[in-house]
Structures are given as C-alpha cells and as structure tokens.
Recover the amino acids of this structure.
C-alpha cells in the first residue's frame, strides 16, 4: 500500500486491522459500501405487524408520535415502525447495542414495500428522543468523522460512520416481545452485472458484494421477460403471506413470507436462486421452522449440482442405476467429505482441472497428490463435469439457473395444490404432513425438466432421472434412492 493521503479527524493508522480492510474495500471495490460496526443492526423496511399485539403496538406508537395511519403514507409509516421493532428484538440477544439508519438515498430503493429514505427519516425523527436516541457523532451527514485517503493512486475515498441510534423505549420492551412481525417485502428480482473472471476473483478475495443493476436499469435491459419473473415472485409471496414460515431463534419468533430471486452475470438464465429471511438460518434453526403451526421436513437433492449438470448434459453418472449418495457410492474408497469439497470448488469455479484447493481448504489436502487424486476420482465418477467452464457452464451460472427453475416449478405445482413450500438453495421445506406429496412432485418435476431440456438441446442421450433425496426433521434423516435410465 502506497501513496496514501490521510486527513480529517482520524488517521488510517488509528484504525483496527479489520477497519483498515473495510476502508480499502470501500475505495477499491464498492464506493457505496456502508461501514459495518460489529455492534450495529442494519435493518431494512421489510417487516409488517403480524399478530394483534404487533398491530396494536405499531398503531399506538404511530399515534403517540403524530404519524398518520391513513392512506399510503400511513401504510409506509407502519412498515417502518414494525421494521424498527423487529430490529429492537435482535439488539440484546445478538450483542448489538445500536440500530443503524442509513442516509444513503439508494440504500432502501427497490423494496416492494415502496418505503424510501424520506419516509424513514420522518419516522426516525418523530421517534427520536422517546423511542430512539441518536448517538452523538455518528453519521457523516451531520458531524463528519471521515477519513480521506488515496490507495494505489485510485483517487480519494470517504470512510464514513453510519448514523446510529440507541433504543430508549424501555417501557415497550415486554410488549415488543409479545409482538410478532412478518418479513413481508423484498426486492423481488435482482440482477447482478456481468464481471470478468479477474473482477470476480478480486471481489471474492475482498468479500465485496457483486455490482448490481438498479430496478430501472434491469427493466430497461430485460423488459417483459423480467416483468414475467417479477410477477411470478409477487404471486408466490402473496401465497406465502397466507402460510408464513415461523422462525424461532435467539429467543424470539419471527414470521417470514417474502422471497426474492438473484440472477448473475447480467443475464436471466444464470443463477436465479430464491432467497428470504429463512435462507441464512443455520440448519438446526431451519429444522425448528413451522408452517401454520405444523413441524417441517427439509427435502434436498443429494449432490444436486453434480447430478443436475450430468443429467442436463445427457451424461450418466458412473454409479449403478440406483444410488443414495453420489459421492459415497461412486468412490467408496475415498473420504466422502473431501470428495464433496473438491466437487464444490471445481463446480463453483467452473474449472474441471483446478490445480489446487482454495486456501481455506488447503489443510484438508496436505498429503502430497491428494487433491489431484480426488479431482481425478471426481471426474471419473461424474464425467459430465469436464464440460464446465469459467464463463457460464458452472455452479453460479448454468447449473444454479436450472436448479432454481426446477425448484420454482416444483413449488408452483405445490402451491397450486395449496401446499406451501419454501426454497433453500437446492432443497425445499414443507410441512411434514405434506412430505409424500412434496417428494413425488419434486422427483417428477426434476425428471420431466431433464427430459424436456435434453430433447430441446439435442443431447446425445435423454436420461430419465429421479434424484436421490435426503429428508431431514428434528428426529433425524432418511434417504430415498435416486435412479437414472437412458430413454
């Protein structure tokens, strides 16, 4: 690092190591990145009051602070208050002490709630002093505490402290605990901009977010095709709101009913997975989810990306016609977990001949030649992986798109039967009492999708495949055999 100019209140040298990394990232990779304090809740205006306690509390807070409840303005005020209450729920249990309220005009754009920065400012100002209290000196918008510096001659950047508030409405604490919120709004469909291989590599090394089209940019570029995708997600979310996921963790319960899709590489046939409040929860938490008060089962495809890619390429996997676990059944002499690591790295990068493991997995392959032996064993077991490339035929492009489309068709078929199903990457979560119907629907959808794809793209073989499934509940897991047959 050289040619670094420092000015204003703080110096670059006074920052912690983590803060320095964030500062460098801000300038070199993402100028709109908000400096994240470890003790801050970064909230979004996406929650609505769900039960009577929540509705009564939101209404009371609005009325007590002169915020109208009528019309579109009242609807938006209620969303902001409900979302702030949700943030309050998470303050103590996660060790956070403050709530961050960004002043960036673009931070809250694109949410289906329609809530923007001006509405949020009006609510926060109304609540300041009785419910919230602004932390003096926080936020570069009133009292700048910035660092200006130049890195590698790239220009001047600003490292700013986001505006923060502490919660001071202690008289509301017990009522907040009894108030349930539902995550009801999302950004519906987002499309990341295209990146070169090197740009993506540098971004991942600095843990930066991918560049993304604004809603307006995406709509202009994709037009009706994007509109159709957005309408599908909106329709699904309307159904979810009737059967929200009940998520209990860290001592409080939240309901979730808003999914959104994220596409990659500036195209609508790359990525497209569904995300929601539930997708980042740990498996132990996910297994405790409930739908309409009923316990759930997680249904996921064994070795989903490897199997899906093989079938779509019209190439069999080198196992018997029936299998339970691809990685275990095709190479029983190898460590199953290590083989899976190799598969994830090779598929994720799009390089079937990847020379060495990533730094985080290097210790797993300390035996000389072990990485190479596992990689070669993988290519023997799943020969279709030789078609991978770094442009599109990889885990974040082609494979994740078709995985997401299979999941979408499965979920929409289930919703047509009034059976709610939520997506978590390559798995669906349904009520345990709907398990049999969901398994049949998932396997049938997968099979018909593969056959249709192979015929449309004139693959050498058309394969009838029902994927092997793993069904998991709080009581444990069980497995359903998969099968493949050239037709």
């Amino acid at each position: 690092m050289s040619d670094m100019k420092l000015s204003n209140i703080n110096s670059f040298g006074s920052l912690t190591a983590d803060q320095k990394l964030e500062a460098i990232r801000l300038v070199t990779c993402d100028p709109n990145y908000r400096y994240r304090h470890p003790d801050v809740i970064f909230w979004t205006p996406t929650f609505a009051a769900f039960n009577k306690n929540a509705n009564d509390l939101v209404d009371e807070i609005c009325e007590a602070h002169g915020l109208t409840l009528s019309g579109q303005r009242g609807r938006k005020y209620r969303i902001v208050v409900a979302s702030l209450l949700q943030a309050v729920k998470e303050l103590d249990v996660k060790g956070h002490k403050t709530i961050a309220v960004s002043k960036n005009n673009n931070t809250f754009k694109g949410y289906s709630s329609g809530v923007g920065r001006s509405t949020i400012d009006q609510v926060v100002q109304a609540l300041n002093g009785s419910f919230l209290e602004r932390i003096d000196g926080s936020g570069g918008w009133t009292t700048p505490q910035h660092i200006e510096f130049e890195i590698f001659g790239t220009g001047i950047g600003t490292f700013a402290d986001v505006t923060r508030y502490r919660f001071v409405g202690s008289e509301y604490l017990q009522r907040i605990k009894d108030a349930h919120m539902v995550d009801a709004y999302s950004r519906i469909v987002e499309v990341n901009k295209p990146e070169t291989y090197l740009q993506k590599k540098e971004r991942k090394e600095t843990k930066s977010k991918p560049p993304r089209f604004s809603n307006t940019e995406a709509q202009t570029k994709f037009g009706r095709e994007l509109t159709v995708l957005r309408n599908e997600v909106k329709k699904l979310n309307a159904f979810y709101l009737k059967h929200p996921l009940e998520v209990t963790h860290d001592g409080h319960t939240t309901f979730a009913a808003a999914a959104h899709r994220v596409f990659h590489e500036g195209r609508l046939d790359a990525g497209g997975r569904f995300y929601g409040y539930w997708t980042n929860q740990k498996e132990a938490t996910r297994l405790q989810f409930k739908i309409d008060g009923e316990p759930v089962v997680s249904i996921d495809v064994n070795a989903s990306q490897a199997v899906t890619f093989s079938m779509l390429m019209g190439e069999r996997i080198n196992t018997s016609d029936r299998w339970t676990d691809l990685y275990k059944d095709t190479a029983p002499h190898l460590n199953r977990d290590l083989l899976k690591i190799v598969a994830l790295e090779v598929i994720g990068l799009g390089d079937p001949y990847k020379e060495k493991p990533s730094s985080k997995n290097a210790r797993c392959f300390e035996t000389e030649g072990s990485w190479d032996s596992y990689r070669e064993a993988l290519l023997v077991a799943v020969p279709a992986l030789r078609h991978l490339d770094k442009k599109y035929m990889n885990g974040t492009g082609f494979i994740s798109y078709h995985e997401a489309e299979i999941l979408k068709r499965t979920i929409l078929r289930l919703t047509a039967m009034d059976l709610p199903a939520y997506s978590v990457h390559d798995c669906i979560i349904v009520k345990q009492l709907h398990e049999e119907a969901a398994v049949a629907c998932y396997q049938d959808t997968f099979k018909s999708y593969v056959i249709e794809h192979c015929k449309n793209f004139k693959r050498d073989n058309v394969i009838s495949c029902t994927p092997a499934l793993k069904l998991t509940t709080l009581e444990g897991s069980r497995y359903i055999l998969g099968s493949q047959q050239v037709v």
Summary: The two ends are 60 Å apart (CA to CA). Residues 178 and 320 are 54 Å apart (CA to CA).
